[in-house]
Design brief:
Number of domains: 1
Largest sheet: 10 strands, mixed
Number of helices: 10
Strand order of the largest sheet: 2-1-5-8-10-12-14-16-18-20
Helix content: 10-25%
Structural class: alpha/beta
Strand content: 35-45%
Distance between the termini: 47 Å
Number of strands: 20
Shape: globular
Order of helices and strands: HHEEHEHHHEEEEEHEEEEEEEEEEEEHHH
Length: 462
Amino acid sequence: MSTSLSPTPATNPIGDFTADRFNAHLAGIPHSVPAWWIERKRNAYAEFASLPMPARTDETWRFSSREHLSLSGFSSSTAETKAVSPATGIEIEDATARLTFVDGKLSGRTPLSRELASSGVVAGTILEGLTTHSELLRKHFMAQPQKLGSEKFAALHTAFIPDGAFIYVPRNVELKSPIVITHVSTGAGSAVFPHTLVVAEENSRVTVVDVFVTLDESNATRAPESKATLNAFACGANDLYAAHGASINYAAAQLWSDTTLSFQLNSTLVRRDARVQSLNLHLGGSQARHESLSQLQAPGAFSEMLAISLASGNQEFDQRTLQVHQAPNTKSDLLYKNALLDKARTIFSGLIIVDSDAQKTDAYQSNRNLMLSDNADACSLPGLEIQANDVRCTHGSTTSRIDPSQLFYLESRGISPAVARELLVFGFFEEVLNRLENESLHAVLIRLIEHHFRRAWQPPTK
């Protein structure tokens, strides 16, 4: 099977995800799963097959590259699950529990303590949850309709997902340390469908970290030279549900290989006086699209949406966001920062919607781009749609280069130009990272950024 991508995606909207392949996937599902799970998958496949690939005229795909967007050349792994080293992911010393999935199948785990398990906390798999918490999964798994352009890929995800992470925190339970989930792709020709579902009941508190990594890590941090060499596909999603008074801190590190086409679809639902903070770090992949929908459904709800992208080579990071305020006295705060080297591209398209009943809304949206190359390209489309008359909403975007006066100041203190630029880039990102409460997670993400930047950055020759 060829692992290159077709240059004419519109002619083959199904690619290798045929009906026969879908039926083979269904045949491998355990008989213990409830009937509704199979029915939902069948409906999703029918939707996937009926929807066209994105077209040039689609507003939700404005500025996005489509010439290498194809679903041909990929296959889901049917082999036995491989064991991987814990070092494949990221190491957070005080993790509450760990789960590792290889090509969508559970490979290893560090379970919860007896105390947490006896209190009703779950850090397991979706397949396990379909048996023990079927109605919870039925209510929250991919429950919110996609609105940002990737409806076809969301349906594909639902149809072919083999398993994923299921995190459940009962009422009034607080987890002091993160749950770490590593999703591993074995690389060339593979198609993976990672998923993390987090349900935090009333007045509970949890931190969850997702890591997306390719098994061959020597590839994972090198910027791609050409999208034509794409040979891996990741179509992931996560659902975050915070009930009244709950708190979810979510972080994701995307470290796919330089030959990966990636989609990641996020849905966040925040109830009364609840808080959700999500931070997404984008470093890997060749063409990566991330869509994030946040819905604030009751008074006092707060959603903080953060992202850092370090794009190099010919990477393209496509970010689409939607902040929906559906009740009065809600707040959302979005801060996305991108640094671009070489011929990299970033696209940000964000929209704040304030319903007519959502008076006293407080919403912010900011996209900032730091250009580190004359050949890089950053597109930004922030927007507002306000139907209430007593709100405070701001949105904006900035695109700039490193301030020469700041660079001169550092160099005048004996710091080399290369180190000075590195310090300024890290300072640019710190505004986002400083919002994290967990110091171990903050340190881990800094190390990932440093490693990637030092491999990608080529200091200009004089």
